[in-house]
Amino acid sequence: MNVNDWKVSFDNTVIGQVLSFVKALEQVKITSKALDGTVYIQTVGEPTVTATVSVFSSKEEMELMNAAEAAGARISVVYRGVTYLGYIESKLQWQTVYPGQWYNASMNLLIEEEIA
Question: What's the predicted TM-score (pTM) here?
Fold first, then answer.
């Protein structure tokens, strides 16, 4: 596995290097407690498959990633030989690595499709 292949892409254009990828399930739950102390948990719908993705981008790539997030565009994330297709959940908060040149951020990816 080559870390140089771990990329975020939008419209066939690379917009970032994946630094880390942690997959998870998000589930809406309603928890209640009866008078006798019994706990009840009700799940609402199916869980959403998500991933926390840390990315590293140039200034130009950062602007493209911001545009993809703002448009609600479907992006592609390649990590360890698997391609994840989905959407950036919310606005990215960028940190400057090298002013005017390199930036990093962490995003929550809502995974719609997974291709091995």
Answer: 0.82
